[in-house]
Amino acid sequence: MQYVEGFVLAVPAGNREVYRRHAAEAAALFREFGATRVVECWGDDVPDGKVTDFRGAVKAEAGEIVVFSWMEFPSKAVRDTVHARVMSDPRMKAMMSGETPMPFDGKRMIYGGFTTLLDS
């Protein structure tokens, strides 16, 4: 079964197009090295929870939009190999070096890898 890596982050609303371009560049690298699918979703119905919620998880500030993303891989082993290759690629290093500022605060991004339990 496929392996999924999920992300939730907060992006300033005014950075939507900058984020989309950034995500497209990163997605191309991940796809080149073995991800089978990359999905980026811009929040438009993200309610406040009574105990916890997406906004609280990423400490979203006023004027920030919650982004929910995931990548699919054939297996965890492939995901691990893809990550190693992407992170050592000069294109990704340039994206993360500060030459072009990140369109979001990466310190507040949450992420994790997940084994597929049900796919219907």
Entry summary:
This protein is an alpha+beta fold and 120 residues long.
Overview of this structure, please?
- The protein is built from four helices and four strands.
- By secondary structure, it is of the alpha+beta class.
- The chain has a single domain, classed as Alpha-Beta Plaits, CATH 3.30.70.100.
- The chain has a four-stranded antiparallel beta sheet.
- The longest helix is centred in the N-terminal third of the chain and has 18 residues, at 16-33.
- It is globular and about 35 Å long.
- The model has no long low-confidence stretch (mean pLDDT 94).
- This is RNA signal recognition particle.
- It holds the Pfam family DUF1428.
- It comes from Teichococcus aestuarii.
**Share of helix among residues?**
25-40%
Main sheet properties: 4 strands, antiparallel
CATH architecture: 2-Layer Sandwich
Instruction: Please state roughly what percent of the residues sit in beta strands, choosing from under 5%, 5-15%, 15-25%, 25-35%, 35-45% or over 45%.
Output: 25-35%
The global form is globular
* Average residue-wise pLDDT: 94
Radius of gyration from the alpha-carbon trace, in angstroms: 15 Å
Q: Which structural class is indicated by helix and strand composition? A: alpha+beta
CATH topology grouping: Alpha-Beta Plaits
Q: Give the termini distance in whole angstroms.
A: 12 Å
Low-confidence stretches: none
Number of strands: 4
Number of domains: 1
Q: Which sequence of SSEs, written as H and E, runs from N to C?
A: EHEHEHHE
- Counted by DSSP, the helix tally is 4
Reading off the top of the CATH hierarchy, the class is best stated as: Alpha Beta
Which strands sit side by side, in order, in the main sheet? 2-3-1-4
